[in-house]
Recover the amino acids of this structure.
């Protein structure tokens, strides 16, 4: 049995974006017999619950002001080491322009923040997360065996993983791009984190997280693997990533993780109260639509498909409680600026996943 969430009763529990590993995966790991797996998962679930309260306070009690239209054309990064404690930001290890340090997690975080900044500046003329040159701060080695990474409304935080299911969360550039894009959404449409608007919030982060990695590798839409978090799973885990935009529902099928529950079509939409209405699960539907549009248009996915999605996110017409249909129609309208081929590709992509966009 699943719980129908199509009504408005869940709007009051909307929170700000969650961490990259969704609660349904951590809940699954928390029930395993192996203490090396279930102990870190249980601690991570408890920490994530506290972080959700803090992130809600950041974005709801102190809403983000609209920034200026431009900012500095260079990143300003600071990486700190929490030293397995919880108090942020920790001890400063590396700042903008400084050389590599012996700690690989610090260097990976530094590079991932820079790759995200460069992507937004060079492809979308956006100056950092807020559009006004917001300094990018990150803390690594958060607690012990912490199985997640998150944007807390002000900075990035990375765990080291449990070493059995998940490895170091700084290693995946698309994860860093994903989480920082929650910040972009926070400063723009501020999509409510529940139901379909919450799934769109996750979807937008997956889109631009993937594009950050594709841009860094200079990959075309056809060359990209369209996986989110492929570097996170440890050897022996039966899976390739946390999610697949190309083929939702196929990212993993493992005795401990379970099977990837993401649908690729509205026929499989999951009605549930869990995970704020299945925001990490149902995001597979718009994810697949973007993949279809981007590959049909070809070339670099950020040149047309990515710009269309960005125009909708930042254009001022996307409601915070938007559903899939309203988002799809806005993308179809925005595609007109990129020619009839783009418009047709977007319409066909949404139709293929069962969402009306006409």
């Amino acid at each position: 049995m699943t719980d129908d969430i199509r009504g408005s009763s869940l709007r009051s529990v909307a929170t700000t974006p969650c961490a990259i590993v969704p609660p349904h995966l951590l809940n699954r790991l928390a029930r395993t017999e192996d203490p090396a797996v279930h102990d870190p998962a249980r601690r991570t679930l408890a920490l994530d619950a506290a972080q959700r309260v803090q992130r809600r306070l950041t974005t709801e009690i102190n809403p983000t002001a609209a920034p200026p239209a431009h900012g500095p054309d260079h990143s300003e990064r600071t990486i700190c080491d929490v030293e397995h404690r919880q108090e942020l930001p920790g001890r400063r290890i590396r700042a903008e322009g400084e050389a590599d340090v012996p700690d690989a997690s610090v260097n990976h975080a530094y590079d991932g923040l820079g790759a995200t900044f460069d992507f937004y500046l060079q492809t979308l003329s956006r100056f950092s997360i807020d559009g006004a040159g917001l300094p990018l701060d990150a803390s690594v080695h958060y607690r012990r065996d912490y199985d997640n990474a998150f944007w807390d409304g002000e900075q990035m935080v990375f765990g080291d993983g449990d070493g059995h299911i998940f490895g170091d969360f700084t290693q995946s550039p698309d994860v860093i791009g994903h989480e920082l894009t929650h910040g972009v959404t926070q400063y723009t449409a501020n999509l409510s984190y529940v139901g379909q608007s919450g799934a769109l919030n996750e979807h937008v982060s997956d889109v631009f997280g993937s594009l950050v990695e594709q841009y860094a590798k200079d990959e075309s839409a056809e060359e990209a693997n369209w996986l989110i978090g492929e570097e996170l799973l440890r050897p022996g885990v039966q899976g390739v990533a946390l999610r697949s935009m190309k083929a939702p529902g196929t990212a993993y099928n493992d005795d401990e993780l379970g099977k990837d529950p993401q649908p690729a079509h509205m026929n499989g939409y999951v009605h549930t109260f869990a995970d704020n209405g299945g925001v990490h699960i149902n995001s597979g539907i718009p994810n697949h639509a973007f993949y279809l549009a981007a590959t049909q248009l070809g070339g670099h996915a950020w040149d047309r498909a990515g710009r269309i999605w960005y125009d909708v996110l930042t254009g001022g017409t996307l409601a915070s409680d938007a559903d899939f249909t309203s988002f799809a129609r806005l993308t179809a309208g925005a595609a007109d600026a990129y020619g009839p081929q783009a418009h047709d590709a977007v319409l066909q992509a949404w139709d293929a996943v069962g969402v009306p966009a006409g």
About this structure: The first strand starts at residue 77 and ends at 81. The chain is about 40% helix and 10% strand.
